[in-house]
Amino acid sequence: MNVQDVLSPAGPAAGRFLELWWITLAICTLVFVAVLAALGYALWRGRRGGASDRLAPVAVASALALSTAGLLFLIVASAVTDRALARMDGEDNPLTIEVIGHRWWWELRYQDAQPSRLFTTANELHIPVGRPVALKLTADDVIHSFWVPNLGGKKDLIPGREAWVTLKADKPGVYRGQCAEFCGAQHAKMAFQVFAHPPEEYEAWAEQQRKPAPEPVDAAQKRGRELFESGTCAMCHGIQGTKANGRRAPDLTHLAGRATLAAGTVPNTRGHLAGWILDPHSVKPGVNMPAHALSPEDLHSLLAYLGTLK
Ligand code: CUA
């Protein structure tokens, strides 16, 4: 299941936001109802005509006092939420991931004290349940915003600056995230997915990501890799363990293990991948990926090779 819902928090940060939201909604509803009641009363009195204004100063004073109290309460509630979120940022042993916003995709660099354990992926954030995940947010081009409604967040990624947000998932699941700051024509198609795994499952996934791409075995796969390395693909995309080491576009070392293509735009199937390679602008107008006029044999070889990148 692939949810995006602020009303069903799957982590402590989203839980705090939801509490604050209910408090704010309750207070605003009370104010709204009180204003309508006062309006109704005033109209009713007006129709009777000529009523005295003896009570007016009292009514104004109590409305003022109640509004002030309500606003103060909201300030305190949001400060308490803010403190709770700040405490989360300081939790021990976080998994640190660098998130870089690009038009229009997400680069994810998993940090580690040992350089050999670093790896880079795109658009699909895998995290272990129960462990805080510290995200270092930066942007490559324009301002983007990181938001996973079920887990929390909504923090801007600003070029030349560094922002941090800590998330934690309480239960396994797949949560949809979305760029929340207008960043150009394909802003709406700048989505991502967060896969929250039980810790052992996460470790197995991370171990797999650290491996270079498997060697092609048959003729078509070998031809596919050759095409990838010698054609325009390798100018932007990297595949670990091959000659392709472009850094401008998503790393494709484990492309076949991803659920979607083009930042959550289409499912990662052979057909969609073919369409994306031949004519990416029909899927996502304005992307940097150019169209490729490949012969049917070359396309078949390329797809055969990309399909091995588990
Ligand atoms: Cu990136 Cu909107």
Name the descriptors.
single chain; alpha+beta; six-stranded mixed sheet; five-stranded mixed sheet; 8 helices; elongated; binds dinuclear copper ion
Report the total helices. 8
Largest sheet: 6 strands, mixed
Using only C-alpha atoms, the radius of gyration works out to 26 Å
Q: Estimate percent helicity.
A: 25-40%
**Uncertain spans:** none
Task: Kindly report how far apart the N and C termini lie.
Answer: 22 Å
What does the overall shape look like? elongated
Mean pLDDT: 92
Helices and strands: which structural class? alpha+beta
Please provide the ordered H/E string of secondary-structure elements. EHHEEEEEEEEEEHHHEEHHH
- Small molecules bound: dinuclear copper ion
Strand content: 15-25%
Number of strands: 13
Detailed description of the structure:
The chain has 310 residues and is of the alpha+beta class. Strands 1, 5, 7, 8, 10 and 11 form a six-stranded mixed beta sheet that branches. It has a five-stranded mixed beta sheet with strand order 4-3-2-6-9. The chain is elongated, with a radius of gyration of 26 Å. A hairpin with a 2-residue loop joins β2 and β3. The longest helix is centred in the first third of the chain and has 37 residues. The protein contains eight helices and 13 strands. α1 runs antiparallel to α2.
